[in-house]
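Why should sequence recovery work at all? Because a backbone constrains its sequence more than one might expect. Tight turns favour small or flexible residues, buried strands favour hydrophobic ones, and helices have their own preferences. The token representation captures these environments compactly. In the example below, the structure is given first.
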């Protein structure tokens, strides 16, 4: 970066905070993913296969309204306090799930009360998941727009930590409490949330700007819901906190002039590609989640052990986050939409590999490719979300809209994933269906890239045609 030699202390502070957000992402998102080999196995082994994905689905679905409210809470109470609150809520939820498993140790099935504890414990973790998912946008306060793709990718790289300390470690923690299998998994989740809170205390989050948070208190509740909930998370003035390396320090004078007006959400929707970016994130996450949550069912049918299934999920999760080291460079080199197109092609390859046969190798390799595809299709649109915003207030509106819709769709498909799979009643057909969807969106990404490449040529031809018409009119006037 240009400012690196001039601001070595600020640059080091930037790196420190990006690294902290990366660790928080790894703990928060990874803890939710540990629910897959934990809660799913508990429900399957106790006769609840049809709702085995409900705990994870509840986390996703309920995190949608939380994603809308969290920026408003951050505005009022400060980002650090809300991240700590998310940590505490996550710990309580995972301990409730552990209690439900411990109470069932003397029976062959879960009682309604024990099942309720497991499902309710998962539900309240939605707040923690929404807070964790928001971190990929929080990084914008520490870096410039030019560095956003790399910083966003590096934050997601933190998931590698949770991949190693998550499902893989769950093979060990599953028997950590000998009185009941899987109870130790939920204790592990609570520890991951605890680490999330410790890291939140170490981050240099900005203080709340209460004087600006009250500006929209009398806004129309229905017409400007997102404005009321998300607006003015705290527009950062140039004079405020000059010692911190933040978005204002990194931007050019031209960028700063853009920070004078706030567009409404409807204006942003019409003027930018926000809807398309949100759709791609929704599809990317849902394709990955539908593979991830259901792949254990055909593996169970074939007869693979819990350890083998966990290794498959672990390989998948590592592949989801490890490419974060290079995804930012790929986006800078070939562009957001070409990278997204490449990701959907990788989805198709992964699905095709798992169609070959039911060997453990094919499951592991196929799910690894699905993880890589998710990273390539998710990082680019996520970084573009922050780029289309001119001010912090616009960013909070856009983030709430984007994550609210994305998490709602993920929750719906996660809740219904097992029912969809059982209705199709064939892993092969289920896989083919997801491949068809991936192919459709690969074509859309290709169309968007071609449109982007041809746009300058179209504009140049339009200008040339207009100039030629003016020249012709001038010649005609001269003759007259």
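From this structural description, the recovered sequence reads:
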């Amino acid at each position: 970066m240009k400012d690196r030699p001039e601001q070595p202390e600020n640059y080091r502070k930037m790196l420190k905070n990006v690294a902290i957000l990366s660790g928080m992402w790894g703990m928060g998102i990874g803890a939710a993913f540990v629910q897959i080999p934990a809660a799913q196995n508990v429900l399957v082994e106790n006769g609840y296969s049809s709702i085995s994905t409900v705990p994870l689905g509840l986390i996703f679905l309920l995190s949608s309204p939380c994603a809308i409210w969290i920026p408003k809470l951050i505005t009022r109470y400060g980002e650090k306090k809300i991240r700590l609150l998310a940590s505490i809520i996550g710990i309580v939820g995972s301990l409730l799930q552990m209690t439900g498993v411990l109470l069932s140790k003397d029976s062959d099935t879960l009682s309604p009360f024990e099942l309720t504890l497991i499902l309710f414990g998962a539900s309240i973790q939605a707040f923690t998941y929404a807070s964790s998912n928001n971190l990929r946008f929080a990084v914008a306060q520490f870096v410039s727009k030019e560095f956003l793709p790399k910083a966003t990718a590096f934050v997601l790289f933190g998931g590698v930590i949770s991949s190693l300390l998550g499902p893989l470690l769950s093979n060990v923690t599953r028997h950590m409490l000998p009185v009941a299998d899987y109870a130790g998994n939920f204790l592990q989740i609570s520890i991951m949330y605890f680490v999330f809170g410790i890291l939140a205390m170490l981050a240099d989050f900005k203080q709340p700007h209460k004087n600006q948070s009250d500006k929209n208190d009398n806004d129309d509740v229905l017409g400007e819901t997102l404005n009321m909930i998300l607006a003015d998370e705290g527009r950062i003035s140039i004079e405020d906190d000059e010692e911190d390396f933040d978005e204002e320090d990194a931007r050019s004078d031209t960028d700063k002039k853009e920070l004078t007006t706030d567009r409404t959400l409807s204006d942003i929707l019409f003027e930018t590609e926000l809807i398309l970016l949100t759709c791609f994130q929704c599809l990317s996450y849902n394709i990955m989640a539908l593979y991830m949550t259901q792949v254990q069912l055909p593996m169970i049918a074939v007869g693979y052990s819990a350890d083998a299934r966990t290794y498959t999920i672990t390989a998948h999760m590592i592949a989801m986050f490890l490419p974060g080291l290079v995804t930012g460079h790929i986006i800078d080199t070939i562009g957001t939409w070409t990278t997204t197109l490449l990701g959907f092609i990788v989805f198709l390859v992964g699905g095709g590999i798992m169609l070959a046969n039911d060997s453990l190798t094919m499951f592991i390799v196929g799910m690894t490719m699905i993880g890589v595809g998710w990273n390539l299709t998710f990082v680019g649109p996520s970084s573009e979300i922050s780029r289309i915003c001119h001010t912090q207030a616009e960013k909070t509106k856009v983030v709430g809209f984007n994550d609210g819709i994305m998490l709602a769709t993920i929750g719906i498909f996660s809740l219904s994933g097992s029912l969809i799979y059982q209705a199709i009643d064939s892993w092969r057909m289920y896989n083919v269906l997801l491949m068809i969807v991936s192919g459709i969106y690969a074509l859309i990404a290709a169309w968007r890239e071609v449109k982007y490449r041809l746009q300058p040529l179209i504009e140049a031809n339009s200008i040339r045609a207009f100039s030629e018409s003016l020249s012709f009119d001038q010649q005609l006037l001269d003759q007259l």
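A few observations help interpret the result. The chain has one domain: 8-208+261-466.
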